[in-house]
Every structure is written in C-alpha cells, then in structure tokens.
Request: fold
Amino acid sequence: MTLHNDHSYIAGTYARYPVVLSHGRGCEVWDDAGQRYLDFTSGIGVNSLGWAHPLWQQAVSEQAGRLQHTSNLFYSAPMATLAKTLCQSTGMQKVFFANSGAEANEGAIKLARKYARDRYGDQRPTIITLLQSFHGRTISTLAATGQAHFHQHFHPFTPCFEHLPANDMDALCARVSRGDVSAILVELVQGEGGLTVLSSEYVQGVQALCRAHDILLMVDEVQTGIGRTGRLLASQHYDLQPDVITLAKGLGGGLPIGAVLMGQRCAQTLGVGDHGSTFGGNPVCCAGALAVLNALDEPTLAHVRSMGERLQAGLATLPGVHDISGLGLMIGFCVQGMTPAQVVHKAMQQGLLLLTAKHKVRLLPALVVNATQVDEALTVLENVLTPS
Ligand SMILES: *Cc1c(COP(=O)(O)O)cnc(C)c1O
Reply:
C-alpha cells in the first residue's frame, strides 16, 4: 500500500530501495514486514544518536508538549540556549538558524555577498567552490555545487560561482589574484562527491590566502559537522578558524534544522531585515539539537574516532576493497569488480544498510555505533565481497 501510494502521489524525484522502514532502536531498524537491518546510513548522517535515543526523545517530546513553534517575532529559550552552546563549543560568535543544509548554505552565500558589498561595492562578486563538491539543491547552492550532472536542467543559475580542483593551491592563488573573489566555500571531507579529504597543507594555505585578501573562508560542515569525523567540527582536525561554518544533517538528531555560524569578521554583517526564515530555529528542533550536543562529550568523540579506525582497519582486510578514505565515521571505499550500487544491494539482502557516494560505497553509521555492530557490518561485507 505504501509503495502504491508513494508511486501514485509523490513526485518522482527519488529512486528508493524497496523497503518501508517501520521503527528503530540505536543502530538497528526494522521494516514493515519485521525484517531487521543493521543501519550504516543513519538517514544520511542525520540520526546522530541513532534511532529513538531516550534523551533525545525525551527532550523533543517535552518541548513539543510545551511550545512547538513561536515564529521569529518572539524570543525563544531553546533557540537562544542552542546558539550559545554552538558558539561556546566552536569559537564562533553568532548563529542564524535555518531548516536544512541548502538553506544554511544560501544564508552563507547571502552573508558573503553582503560582506563584500559593504566593503568593496560590486568589485567582488565571485564565490569559489571545489570540483566534486555538494552544497545543496536550491538554484544558488546548485550553482555552488561543482558537479556538472547537477547542472543539466535548471539554467539559468545564480551567476559568479566558479569551481576549482580540490587540493590545488596554485589554481586557487591564480584565480584569487584577479581580485574579484568574496568567499571560498569548501567541504573538508567531500561527502556526496566521493569522500575526498582535503590535505592540511591545502586547507592551511586556503586560510592564509583568505586572511591576506579579506576573503571569507566558509566551511560547509553540513555532513562533516556535529561529531561525524570524531571532532565536534571537522575544522578542528585542521586547527582552522573559518569565518563561516554551515551545519545541518546531524545537528537535530533527526529533526530539520540548519545553522550558519559566523566568526568575528562577519558576525555583524547581517542586520534586521537582511535575512529570515519562518521555521528557522524551531523550538522542537532546537531541543533535539541540544540533546545531541549534550551527548557529544569528549569520550563520545573519542569513541567515534576509535570506531572509525576499527572500521577502516577491518575494511582494509576485505577482498577487493581499495581507496579507503574519510575521517571518523564518514568513510568511503571502492570495490574491485563491483559498483557501489551492487554492493549496497547485496548488503541490504543480508540485512546491512549502506550508502553510495559517486564511485564509492559510503558508511555513515550513527555516532553511537558499537564495536559489536562494526564487526557485524564487516562480517556482512566480507560475505558480500567474497567471490562465490
Ligand atoms: C546534504 C548536504 C547539503 C544539503 O543539505 P540538505 O539538508 O539536503 O539541503 C549541503 N552540503 C553538504 C556538504 C551536504 O552533505
């Protein structure tokens, strides 16, 4: 019935797996026929604390019972507390709340435009992003996305986005020297684009270039943020202090919330009336996000790093696995002789849910995944990959 209704009435934008998920606990989820799966997708890096974490569930349901939405015409305690928690744990100064990754990146783009116009008039329209990046599905964030196949049907795009190769400092210096760049927007580990990890040499070079030319360094941490890489932010692996950080996916632990974090240089750029969002900072979503942040103490982040290492070490021993990349619990790998879609399909038949990212199989388990579950996933993958 669900499949029938979906096919009949939902816009055909998604290729879904033939599974109707029904309920979950931790890293396990069951479909409507009672089949149990080990989940290494976490709703594409969204369910940070797994399915139905008791503290998250309690925070969300208590807030829903008290006040579900206020509009931004009023002050709201969960939003203010979340903003303070985010700033104090990241060294950033102000937060704008949105509802998704794309909307957070739209906010970052508007911020970059205004920052540059305030100082340089119309001299700096260009925003640089990287090839193989992914920044969202709106017209401007698609323009920012450095993958040609996203650009097929939707011209005309927002102008003045340019894509440069990742880890190529010479290309970036040459382009910046033309003097018209307002911001550089990067993912430190490219999520959708195939789990490319930026080198620290490159990232330090980008930061120095941005400082020297008053260009905003904007890091899209929509996928890498909120503990995913084993630090609260991937920026912390690089000892980076970006001017703008965007968050979404894992922030709400399963509820829609995005955030634009602003550093000292641009914290005052947006004023009254410059930006807004009806649902932005919704109290139920903020309560969920606070429960997530409260759970991500240092031992939990150390757990993420340790489970990531266990996974990578185990993957390296599996037949046909090569080009393992990623950080923390954001891992990709290639398989000799199999497409990522084939691996995902076979693993699902054996009760393990996985993701793809371009040419790679991608693993994004909940941050609470334990060693037994990591080992179970590796055993299923060994069965899938062993030639029969
Ligand atoms: C998923 C993702 C987005 C888009 O987020 P939505 O919530 O789907 O709009 C943007 N940037 C990165 C790095 C992402 O992984």
Residues 100-102, 105, 134-136, 187, 191-192, 220, 222-223, 248-249 surround pyridoxal-5'-phosphate (CB under 6 Å). The two ends are 36 Å apart (CA to CA).
